[in-house]
Amino acid sequence: MSTNRNVRPIVNEGQPQFHAGALSLDLGPQEIHRAIHAIPVGGDDEQLTEIAISGSAGQDGVLMRLNHPIRITMEGPLGDYAFAYNAESDIRMTGDVGSGVAEGMVSGAVRVRGNAGVGAGTGMTGGTLAIYGDAGNRCGAAMRGGGIFVRGNVGDEVGVGALGGMIVIGGDAGHNLGDPTSSATVFIRGAAASLADGVTDAPLRKREQLRLGLLLINASIRGDAKEFRRVVPVAMLEAEASERGELNPNWR
User: To the nearest whole percent, how much of the chain has pLDDT over 90?
Assistant: First the structure.
């Protein structure tokens, strides 16, 4: 593995230059975190300061627990638990990641232009995770909030134990998709090998088409919302029908 592990700034035109210096990732995660969190940020949320990080290929636990409004670009492949518990940071990565990417994410965004392993976005409470390849089993398990967008296929037990949030699947899903006690929203464009017991699929309602269309645009994922179906608990669908299309919060 290369020993040239530096953090270098990308300076946008019109932004003050900040020299992060040459930092070795061998110094440890605490030193890297201090260097990133020391980078000054402007008051414009739409124009984040950008840095590029090199030399992290193959490592586990890369950039865990960031909490800084900054945009980071980097290349993989990365190991397990990359960007876990991210807050505020906007991370754009090219390459594959291992298991547990963005686990427990609180806010911010993680975009992976590659494939992800098992448990992508597990336990998320906020933020956006976009995977522009495939994702493994138990994607979005135990979610509490936030959104996961997978352009390709996903594995088995997607959304198991999820209590909130949104999962958008552009391709196919494996077995046991969804959770019969979940209030999470699951949209799928392809086919599922099987749905979890007590779960069914249904066409999107008009307001969901509009909502999903905007979300697809924001996540830079091509596709017409009309091509997707929603996966919901049977009890929720029955409650919607009895409430004239409005969700009954006591459907359980």
Answer: 51
Closest to 64 in 3D by CA, of 46, 81, 43: 81
Nearest to 83, CA basis, from 53, 44, 43? 53
Q: Under DSSP, is residue 203 helix (H, G, I), strand (E, B) or coil? A: strand
* HEC-encoded secondary structure of 108-175: CEEEEECCECCCCCCCCCCCEEEECCCECCCCCCCCCCCEEEECCCCCCCCCCCCCCCEEEECCCECC
Q: Label residue 155 exposed, middle or buried (CB < 10 Å: 0-12, 13-18, 19+).
A: buried
Say how far apart CA 36 and CA 210 lie, in whole Å: 37
Domain coordinates in residue numbering, the chain: 129-252
What pLDDT, in 10s, does the model give residues 139-171? 999 999 999 999 999 999 999 999 999 999 999
At 102-125, the pLDDT tens digits run 999 999 999 999 999 999 999 999
R_g over Cα of the chain: 19
> Are the C-beta atoms of residues 20 and 35 closer than 8 Å to each other?
yes
Alpha carbons 25 and 22: distance in angstroms, whole number: 10
pTM above 0.85, yes or no: no
The tokens of 104 are what?
A: 């427990």
